[in-house]
Amino acid sequence: MKARSTTSMRLAGLILAVCALPVLGAGISVTDIGNFGPTGLDIRVRPDRWVEITGVQEGSPAAGKFEAGQLISTINGHGIPDDGLGPQVHLARRITEAEATDGILRFQVHAEPEADPAEVVLEIPVLGAFSETWPVDCEKTRRIVRQKADAIARLAETSRDGLTGHNLTNALAILFLLSTGEAQDLEVVRGIYARRMEDFDDVYTGPHSWHNGYQGIAVAEYYLRTGDETVIPLINAIAESARRFQVHGGWTHWARGVNPQYVAGGLMNPAGTQILTFLLLARQTEATVDEDTLLSALRYFYRFAGHGSNPYGDHRPEGGYGSNNGKSEMLAVAMHIASQAAEGGEVYAMARDKNAQTPLYSTRHMLQGHTGGGLGAVWHGVAVAHMMEQRPELYRHRKDSIQWFYELSRRHDGLFGICGGQRYDQVSYGHGMGLALTAPRRTLQITGAPRSPHARAFRLPARIWGREADLAFFDLEGGEPYGARELLPEAERDGIPDLDEAGLERMAYHPEHVYRELAAGAIRDQGHHRLIERLLRSEDPRARQTGCLAINHFEPWNMRASRGLQSRLSMRSEHFTAEMFEALMDMISDPEQAWWNVNHALLALPAASTEQVASRLDDLLPWLEHAEWWLVEAAALGLGPAMRDAEAMARILPPLVDALADMEHARPRSTIVNWVIPRATGDADEEVQRAVSMASLEVYRRFVSVPDPEEGVDHSGITSVALHSILNAILRRDEETALAGARASVARIGDLRTRELNLVVDSLVDAAERMSGAAQREIGRILREHYRSAVVGDDPVALRARIESGRDVRTMNKLLQIDRMAGLPVGWQLLGVSPAGEQIVWRASFEPAEERPRDAQQRYREVELPDRLEGWYRPDYDPAAHGWVRDVVETDGTAPNSPVHTRRWRQELLPEAGEVIFTRTAFELDDLDAVMFRVTAFTRQGYDIYLNGHRIARQTGRSRTWQPRVHVFDDNMRQHLRVGTNVVAARSFLQYFRGREGNLEIYVEALPAFPEVE
Question: Which of 113, 137, 439, 505 is an S-S bond match for 447, by CB 3.0 to 4.6 Å?
Answer without folding.
Answer: 439
